[in-house]
Design brief:
Number of domains: 2
Distance between the termini: 44 Å
CATH class of the largest domain: Alpha Beta
Radius of gyration: 27 Å
Helix content: 40-55%
CATH superfamily of the largest domain: HUPs
Structural class: alpha/beta
Bound molecules: zinc ion
CATH topology of the largest domain: Rossmann fold
Length: about 475
């Protein structure tokens, strides 16, 4: 049974994995994609890696999942940035959409079935607004079309907000014709003489509000305004996701709009959210210039997807150390040459570790504990590695690599470049002559080239070291 924490109900939902080939319709998952006005940073990486892990695991457990992500290519932030840089907003959005796909590719994210741009769904957006007018939920002012929050009784159901408190704390309202400070824009009219993107509409030239873009894309691609899973970063819960629910349920009259809501925790830098506006962000591409992608994956996997994470030196160093010890263990297994069959004790230990790994992943994708189970397996064999035979070593290695693969971690290649191999061989010859200080000198040289060497009774073992220096 796979258990998923549902933000909407505050409860854990149980989902029975289907028998292979028996699930008729895929689970539909919508995850809020990026607003394409800048390079994506580690805060985005956290969310998209989390959903990549979740979807990959669900698929591994035989669930069919159709994963849809929207691209917000119409937004105030895009227009502001375009004005700042004297660029055309459409061109700016196209450029950063491209960089987003590049970043997702370098993170190894392949789980998304479809990306959909808001600008390709203007017709569906307008159709939803028309239906909201007909049902009495939409009204027009001189600035645009708004959704009347007071008309929708369940507003606040997802975020469990005290709406009156929110109304009192509202900042200065730019549109005095709004009936309620919480009413949100469905359609924004273009300002006179402004260089903005706009589309004609029955209400006037303008562009869509943010929330309606997502419900329109969901309806267009899923064919319905009701589906199984919706995900996004926790800070999108209010007002974005709350407003999506209001729009969709007001149009369809069906509840709930989405059965299970999943939210990823925030990424903090010195107690503040990593964000564009605070200028405390590290872009995905800058991070990957300094560290292998496996380090980033492990760093995030060491935290539960719903927990907040503090980004600091330890975040990277601990992940790199964890990867180093996996690589060291795998390289040592490669040295084992002894003949023999797989012993029953070895088999039992592997089976126990596998069960634990799956139990942890089944329990709301608890990746830190699944990783801990993997390390328990490694630790259990490390101390008696010399007593293993070759068949056992292969079985253990395959188990470790498979579990890492389920988590989306591809361990860096264990093959050595020729210069490192010949340095290791030279060091062995010197050691055989018992010239230990010269051997030590060579070890340092190998380390400065980014490789680790360790002498074991089975011979020297070497592996590529992850993140030699955080501040490099
Ligand atoms: Zn969204």
């Amino acid at each position: 049974m796979v258990v998923i924490y549902n933000t909407l109900t505050g409860k854990k939902e149980r989902m029975k994995p289907p028998k292979p080939g028996r699930q008729k319709k895929p689970l539909r998952l919508f995850v809020c994609g990026p607003t394409v006005y800048d390079y994506s940073h580690l805060g985005h990486a956290r969310t998209y890696l989390a959903f990549d892990t979740i979807v990959n695991y669900l698929r591994h457990r035989e669930f069919l999942v159709f994963y849809l992500q929207n691209i917000t290519d119409i937004d105030d932030k895009i227009i502001e940035r375009a004005v700042e840089e004297r660029k055309n907003p459409k061109e700016l959005a196209v450029f950063f959409e491209k960089t987003y796909y590049q970043d997702m590719k370098s993170l190894g994210i392949k789980s998304v079935n479809k990306y959909e741009r808001a600008s390709d769904h203007i017709q569906e957006i307008q159709s939803q607004i028309s239906r909201l007018f007909k049902k009495g939920y939409a009204y027009q002012t001189k600035n645009g079309v708004y959704f009347s929050v007071k008309k929708f009784k369940n507003y606040g159901i997802l975020s469990r907000q005290n709406l009156d408190e929110l109304r009192h704390g509202w900042r200065i309202e730019p549109d005095l014709e709004k009936k309620d400070p919480l009413d949100f824009a469905l359609w924004k009219f273009i300002k006179p003489n402004a260089k903005e993107l706009f589309w004609p509409s029955p209400w006037g030239d303008g562009r869509p509000g943010w929330h309606i873009e997502d419900t329109a894309i969901a309806e267009a691609i899923f064919g319905k305004l009701q589906y199984e899973l919706h995900g996004g970063a926790i800070d999108l819960k209010f007002p974005h996701h709350e407003s999506e629910i209001a729009q969709a349920e007001a149009i369809s009259g069906k509840k709930p709009y989405v059965k299970i809501w999943l939210h990823t925790g925030v990424l903090l830098v010195e107690e503040e959210k990593m964000s564009k506006s605070l200028r405390n962000f590290i872009t995905i591409r800058d991070f990957l210039k300094r560290h292998p992608v496996a380090v980033m994956r492990v760093a995030f996997l060491r935290h539960h997807y719903r927990s907040p994470i503090n980004y600091n030196q330890g975040f990277v160093i601990q992940a790199a150390n964890a990867l180093n010890s996996i690589l060291e263990f795998l390289s040592k297994l490669n040295l084992i040459k002894k003949n023999g069959a797989v012993g029953s004790m070895t088999r039992e230990k592997i089976e126990t570790a596998k069960k634990e790994f799956y139990a942890k992943m089944d329990e709301d994708f608890n990746t830190p504990e699944a990783l801990a189970a993997l390390f328990k397996l490694i630790g259990g064999f490390q101390s008696q590695i010399q007593s293993l035979n070759k068949k056992e070593a292969i079985l253990i290695k395959n188990t470790v690599v498979k579990q890492l693969r389920i988590l989306g971690v591809k361990p860096p290649s264990s093959s050595m470049p020729p210069n490192i191999r010949s340095l290791i061989a030279a060091r062995e010859r010197i050691r055989a002559k018992r010239e230990f200080s010269r051997a030590d000198h060579l070890r340092k040289k190998i380390e400065t080239l980014g490789y680790m060497v360790e002498d074991t009774p089975m011979g020297p073992v070497a592996w590529k070291k992850m993140v030699p220096d955080y501040n490099q």
